[in-house]
What does this fold into?
Amino acid sequence: MSITLQEIKESFTSNFSFYLDSFFYLLKNPSWDNPFYIILCIYFITFSLEVILPKKEKYPLLERKGFKLDIFYLFFIDFLLMAIGFYAMVSVVEKIFLGSLLFFGISTPILNIEVLPELVQFLIFFILVDFVQFLGHYLLHRIDFLWEFHKIHHAQEQLGFASTRHFHWFEYIVFKPLLYIPFGLLGFGVKYYVVYYLWIGLFFTFLSHCNVKINWGFSNYIFINPDTHFWHHSKNGPGKFGVNFASVLNVWDLLFGTFYLPENKKPQLGVHDIKEIPNGFLGQMIHPFKSVFRKKPQTPQSEIVSTTMMNKEKIKKSIKKGTIKK
It folds into this structure.
């Protein structure tokens, strides 16, 4: 099966109109599985946690550095971006992906998991999507070209719930196509699995940027949280490419040796060349494109220090105790 340019054009046009119609329909019809209201609930829950719980870092809630810009990013990433055509572009990529599979005689789903209990099906979907998210995040750090775009997200010296969406739209060029891997394997008719993942995945993603202080204990080894993710945003951690790339499950960092949570040490948020990053939205959207065409030495994402990742012996001791010393 081959896809013509005319079919691509028609797909883009139809999906552009479809998204606008769906947008207004979803706004008028709130429900537990409505993605717009899921994201609004996550906003409210995580913001409330920042109001109620003690602060991890001592800076104000509403007047912290970059708060107003972060709020604009929330609106732009979660609502405006798709409305101005990104949804249509993603739909075209999906059409090309499916067409390519059919061209090679592959039809979805590749794996038949429908014979399994629904809970097991969801767990398989969740683990697969979470691993792909981890892989995509690692690539954003590992590939210099992609890092210039992801750096916008890391050029924040104070974090809060809204910092979650403070990133360059170009990152979706990496994440969205990668998500077709689990969908290609498991099929595209998994609506409620996506909804369940949204509730869980979005909650932990926003929570990890929250300026809240909680004793996470053993769960540091399982779920992403501010303790582990603030180190991901640090410039004084080990290694050139950073640490703690997890989307939800920290198990991937433990397996691949990128987990880092030192005792008696505090992360310094930001990037080394932060002065080069513009303060305004438009400047931040343009800056990465300028950087990739400008030849200059690549600045390390974090300090290359002698401290290694949390070693296996320490992990074994912590698992045995069932807690993490702070």
Notes: The radius of gyration is 21 Å. The CA atoms of residues 156 and 270 lie 5 Å apart.
